[in-house]
What does this fold into?
Amino acid sequence: MQAWDDLTTRIRELDALGSANALLEWDQQTYMPPRAADARGDQLALLQRLYHERFTDPAVGAWLDQLEATELDPTQRVAVHNLRRKYRRAVCLPTRLVEDLAKARNDGFGAWVAAKQADDFSGFEAPLQRLLDLAREQVEFYRTPEHAHPYDALLEDYDPGSTVAELRPMFDRLAGELGTFLAAVDGRAHAEGFDARLDIDGQKRLSQRVLRDMGYDMQGGRLDLAAHPFSTGIAHGDVRLTTRYEEDNLLSGLGSTIHEGGHGLYEQGLPSRLAGTWLNSAASYGLHESQSRFWENFVGRSLPFYRYLVPRMQAIWPDLAVTPEQLYGAANRVERTLIRVEADEATYNLHIIVRFSLEVEIFGGKLQARDLPEAWTEAYRRIVGVVPPSPKTGVLQDVHWSSGLLGYFPSYTLGNLYAASLAQCLLRDLPDLWHRVEHGDFAPILGWLRTRIHDRGHTADAPVIVRDVIGDRDPVADLVAHLWSRHGAVYGVARPS
It folds into this structure.
């Protein structure tokens, strides 16, 4: 099994390079001074070139050939299968393109930050067009006969097996169900809001407390600030989260913390025993999003959660007059709004459907960077029912395109769908779930997720892992039923029979 030993040694080297790259990217969005941007672009380009060269080394292909002709144990067999799939895609890309993409992502991020601050798309148009051109070139190298639509080739990076042909009808069905729900809610009175001004230091302390209670290991991670909250697994024992705070919007910042905490818990729960195989990774971005959306929405917007939270809030702000019911109503308001990351559970997926439809048109050859502000505005009017007044609240609101993450957005809705069915199975297995949440006992929830999702790593693809847990449940039906049950009750509307 020398080939296996050589292969796992190489993967450990690649993991080290990937960790260095991830650390630089984390620093880029947290503490890096602006004048370091050019040097950081060179550093990232070099690391990604070295990574690409080490992974596409013909020796890796030879080791895989030998192992595929060898009798392997089940873990090795899955590892070799996954590695062959990754290797096949990696060798398609010339090193020059890998470096160009790294540099364009660095330039794109800086241009996006400046454009968003100025509320002016023009400064981002050229860097974005560069990223789109490189992504289209990437598609041409990736694309196989199985990719009926060019966009399918990018979806493979995030949720293997997802296709436009599969996602479009599912998203259309979901949009139709959401339209029915929103028609019932539109025009009805909202619950009382919550806009008390709370100091940022206190909000930081509350976020830290909630993360610790959820089970996030602060000795193996940290929480910082970023313009666009994100999480990243640097290495085993180093999982970093970021969030944001606003003095008059506690629920937004806390929701971001819980969301990223869900990602962080998944990363901390991946099987370190499988290091050197790449099976110690998430099975897909959609499955990753299922963990963050599960904690943020199913748990973090529930009434029992706010019964747990209010005493912790009042320990920090003793004079604060607030009830769990007030927070619950405020957190579950349903409103057609402009910003995806601030959207409620019911409208959030409409924001994703907008982005999915635009990306499909980009890679179908129908849209260029210059077309996107107008196309974005029209899609929002048609799908979400609101019109952005400016680029900052429209086409510039997300960091993803500036980082070259084209094909990522559908993962959010896949995550919401997975989370809805996982939640129903959790309720079945833990009938005292809400009693435990109210008393801050989140350990049984985390243990359930650890066993069924986290500890499996990528020993199977995400649809298989999810199906093993939920059986023949219909995630679209589960998500829609959840919305009618929770938000319908808040607004006093019943689902049509």
Q: What stands out?
A: Residues 3 and 63 are 5 Å apart (CA to CA). The mean pLDDT is 96. The chain has two domains: 2-142, 167-491.
